[in-house]
Amino acid sequence: MATTANTKQKNREASQPDARVQRSKKAVLAAAHELLSQAGLGGVSVDAVSERSGVAKTTIYRHWRSRTALLLDACSNLSARPQPPDTGTLRGDLETMALYLAGRLQTAGWAKVLPSIVDAAERDPKLARLQASLHGEMRGAFKVIIERGQERGEVDAAADPTEVIAAVMGPLYYRRWFSREPLDEGFVRGVVERAVRTTSPAR
After folding, report:
1. What is the CATH number of domain 90-199?
2. By three-state DSSP, how is residue 83 classified?
3. pTM of this structure
């Protein structure tokens, strides 16, 4: 009996440090994510994360060897991976997906951070891989829709899915980050209409 009690006590003691580690990591990542959403990559320093999370800098550096490692971990929470809709038609699928993207571009935390990631990716290969991954997650749903349209004969079999994706996503990105014009439903549906019209099989 005594041996069993001692074992349970040791197990509890061993689990407590692990629980503290997980709590501190969670607090640090939450603080880093908040700072990313508010100020982009440039607004995230270990000092700022430490102040906001209440976790000492020495502890942060025990969990992450560098600021870049912390940024990569925090940015991994900026998932933009949607499920491709299946309305039964190419137009319906593209409209649903494009309207979803337009909404997310205006409200999601990753939409505020992405421009600074793209900028940093020009100089940091690790962040370049992260940027490619984030973009690939969103682009993947469109690729499924277009390839499905090709299987149904709604899209020219010779069409390059990446060009169709650019024809839909490009105008939305342009309005969100460059012209800053409204990403309203009429504009989005017009973008999809043009993409569908130009990629339809020749009759």
Report:
1. 1.10.357.10
2. coil
3. 0.76
